[in-house]
Design a protein that fits this description.
globular; Rossmann fold; binds S-adenosylmethionine; about 20% strand; alpha/beta
């Protein structure tokens, strides 16, 4: 542990990187909640993800960078933001404090949606990093399955999924399996994602159901 008043090498490196980082500076200058905001802006610019009336579920929403962007883009829509950590959100957003996949969280989402289906599921969820690559990758893939499960519960036919993932064990097979459930699946890395990170985004559009890897079939599919 670093002694009082002294920074550890890794935290100094992190601080230097933050100071150099263009998108961190942009977020600070423009009063954005987080640097992550720019990743969604770039994904939306490229894939035209959002329409003003869409019903959107955002998983892994804290501290609220994406939420902030989504609120402006959904003037007539519904936004549900889920995270165990506090989310900065405007009054109209449905904030659920808890972990995606928990029964109570699912019950709250179901209550908000009623019979309506979602147009889009967004997941920027990331596991707590243990530093053991295989463990972290396995946890990230579990979160991908959690996001996918919400699709089988609520995503309407033709809807989309945008999911943060990490290059590594299991991802290629996972993406391949999504090609059986969505018309078009693209793996992409927005400019705002740090080049040295294994982070990528799966953009899947045109949901047509079909069983997920656990054999769950989409409602109404
Ligand atoms: C990279 S941050 C999200 C940043 C956010 N999109 C933004 O723009 O501010 C990843 C988040 O995933 C959340 N997370 C991890 N596991 C989760 C789960 N099972 N359900 C919901 N959120 C989860 C973490 O608490 C963390 O806040």
């Amino acid at each position: 542990m670093a002694s009082k008043g002294k920074r550890s090498k890794s935290s100094s490196r992190w601080l230097q990187r933050q100071q150099r980082d263009y998108f961190v500076r942009q977020a600070q200058d423009k009063g954005q909640v987080s640097r992550a905001h720019y990743k969604l802006v770039q994904l939306d610019q490229r894939f035209k993800l959002l329409r003003g009336h869409f019903k959107v579920l955002e998983l892994g929403a804290a501290p609220g960078g994406w939420t902030n962007y989504l609120q402006d883009k959904l003037p007539k829509g519904v936004l549900i933001a889920v995270d165990p950590l506090p989310i900065t959100a405007a009054a109209g957003t449905h904030v659920i404090e808890g972990e995606a996949g928990e029964p109570e969280v699912e019950a709250q989402i179901g209550h908000i949606l009623g019979d309506a289906g979602l147009d889009l599921v967004l997941s920027d969820m990331a596991p707590n990093i243990s530093g053991v690559r295989a463990v972290d990758q396995a946890r990230a893939m579990e979160l991908a399955d959690v996001a996918l499960h919400t699709c089988t519960l609520w995503l309407r036919r033709g809807g989309g999924l945008v999911l943060k993932a990490f290059q590594g064990e299991g991802l290629d097979a996972w993406v391949q399996a999504r090609r059986r459930q969505f018309e078009k699946v693209t793996l992409t890395k927005p400019r705002a994602s740090r080049p040295e990170s294994r982070e990528v985004f799966v953009v899947a559009r045109g949901y047509h159901g079909g069983p997920d890897d656990a054999g769950h079939t989409a409602k109404g599919a």
